[in-house]
Design goal:
globular, alpha/beta, Rossmann fold
């Protein structure tokens, strides 16, 4: 009997980035994977959370990430909203804390894919994914883009592209095209993980 592929969907953020993470997880499950959905810790001080009305309760049902979750996974989907064209600081802090995995080569050869959201079309969708991908290069991971494999990627006027699933945050909800792209990305990650593990 074939062993189930284990996929970790890890993100920082609230609202639409959580929706994208859940769609990627759903796609991975539809492809037969066992999936863990995890978030990174919020590092904003309480006064910033209150001042800018950050909806920290919107992902309370999701467990925080541990290094063992990364060890467990056969493949990883990594997501963050864009912060000035880069990943959010909370995700960067967590990734910087994974040096123990790096020194032991524990993520070497594992496939990884990326997703993001930004408020404007040119607000950093691609650059945020590219900045997250530098982590994978240093860990020797295998980057899994989605290319133009489904028509929604080239026909979407909102989010999604060859780099990965995205959401155009000027509208509150992830639309059906964005959701379909995210589910496809989850399936693609499982397919590649299965081939590499097999």
């Amino acid at each position: 009997m074939e062993q189930k592929i284990k996929i970790l969907v890890l993100f920082y953020g609230y609202g639409s980035i959580v929706s994208l993470a859940k769609e990627i997880a759903k796609g991975a499950e539809e492809e037969g994977a066992e999936v863990k959905l995890r978030k990174v810790k919020e590092y904003f001080p309480q006064e910033i959370v209150e001042k800018f009305h950050i909806p920290v309760t919107s992902n309370q049902d999701i467990q925080e990430i541990s290094l063992d979750d990364l060890r467990w996974a056969d493949g990883l989907a990594l997501g963050s909203p864009t912060r000035f064209g880069n990943m959010a600081g909370s995700l960067k802090i967590f990734l910087d804390s994974t040096i123990e995995l790096w020194t032991k080569g524990e993520l070497y050869g594992k496939p990884v894919t990326f997703f993001t959201e930004a408020s404007t079309i040119h607000g950093g969708h691609e650059s945020t994914i590219l900045t997250m991908s530098t982590y994978a290069y240093h860990f020797g991971m295998i980057i899994v883009p989605i290319g133009y494999a489904i028509p929604e990627i080239s026909s979407s006027t909102t989010g999604g592209g060859p780099y990965g699933a995205t959401h155009l945050g000027s509208k509150p909800e992830v639309d059906e095209k964005e959701a379909k792209i995210a589910r496809f990305q989850g399936k693609r990650l499982v397919q590649v993980s299965r081939k590499l593990k097999g």
